[in-house]
Amino acid sequence: MAKIELRNVGVTFNVHQQKRVSFKEYMIRGLFRRAANPMMRVRALEGINLSARDGERIGVIGHNGAGKSTLLKTLAGVYPPTAGTCTVEGKICSLFDITLGFEFEATGWDNIRYRAYLQGESSRSVRSKLEEIAAFSELGDFLNIAVRNYSAGMQMRLAFSIATAINPEVLLVDEILAVGDLAFTSKAQARMRELMNTSRLMVIVAHDLKTIANMCTRVVWMQHGRIVAQGPPREIIDRYVEASTRKPAGPAPVERVPELAAA
Ligand SMILES: Nc1ncnc2c1ncn2[C@@H]1O[C@H](COP(=O)(O)OP(=O)(O)OP(=O)(O)O)[C@@H](O)[C@H]1O
Questions:
Q1: Where is coiled-coil annotated (predicted)?
Q2: For ligand 1, atom 6, which residue shows the shortest CA distance?
Q3: 3-state secondary structure 5-58
């Protein structure tokens, strides 16, 4: 059974402002022990409560900087929550940042092995999937050379072929991927559709509201790190469109953090 349970989840980033300061300002600030580049706190997620079960297809919508990708990365375990609890049960396939984590000095074949192990495959299941992944990628002899020699599109092909080779229970998608050239993109889209149909639970972030309306059973609307509303796709999308036309929302305001500023 696949399950997502977020209780009062918050994710906060502490980031340095990248301000250019003159030498004089730097010295004066130093005298008063104040950092030249003070910390800012970005509350990317706040008070998120979300439950989802088998069979649900959840679409996440909202303005730029609303926290959609952060929500997805929290579900994938990339960002640990700084508040609340996040439980995800089931084998996860994350279709975002898919080329991250390649061993660039290793060959395509070795990268298939490394990543398949990371995705939870055993040595026996890796062996049976190796050829299938290689065939899907259509990279042929290039699999014998180091990944650093691949073009960006070739890296995407390989990453996509590996990421989608598992049968996920929980599928996390950040925008529909355009992978590789025209021929590969249509093949990749067919595989995406297959994964979406076979995975038990899906969460997809997209700005294309038509895709969300057609694909999802529930829509979650986010604003400034919070869930504003969730429910039937048509109803929530209409409310979001209406609100955006009335008053477009910008990214969340950042907050100066005095206690961290002197760090
Ligand atoms: N690694 C990070 N470090 C610092 N701040 C971050 C980080 N990732 C996201 N943020 C901040 O968190 C907020 C939410 O970002 P997020 O990427 O989740 O938004 P989004 O809704 O996916 O936006 P978009 O539609 O533009 O992709 C933003 O203010 C962003 O600057």
A1: none
A2: 13
A3: EEEEEEEEEEEECCCCCCHHHHHHHHHCCCCCCCEEEEEEEEEEEEEEECCCEE
3-class DSSP state of 87 = strand
Token pair belonging to 55:
């069979």
Ligand 1 site-directed mutation target among 69, 75, 240, most atoms within 8 Å of CB: 69
Residue 195 has pLDDT above 80, yes or no: yes
Distance 37 CA to ligand 1 centre (A): 20
- The superfamily in CATH containing domain 95-197 is P-loop containing nucleotide triphosphate hydrolases (3.40.50.300)
Instruction: Tell me: pLDDT of 86 over 80.
Output: yes
Pocket test for ligand 1, best of 17, 70, 172 (most atoms within 8 A of CB): 70
Helix or strand run (H / E) with residue 242: helix 233-246
Residue closest via CA to ligand 1's atom 19 equals 65
Q: Would you list the domain boundaries of the chain?
A: 95-197
The percent helix, strand, coil of the chain (3-state, each to 5) is 40, 25, 30
Pocket of ligand 1 (CB under 6 A): 13, 15, 42, 44, 62, 64-70, 251-252
**pLDDT higher at 99 or 68:** 68
Q: Cβ atoms within 10 A of the Cβ of 41, count?
A: 14
Task: Please give the pLDDT value at position 40.
Answer: 84
Is a pLDDT exceeding 50 seen at residue 98? Answer: yes
Count CB-CB contacts under 10 A for residue 131: 10
Helices 152-163, 182-198: crossing angle, 10 deg rounding: 20
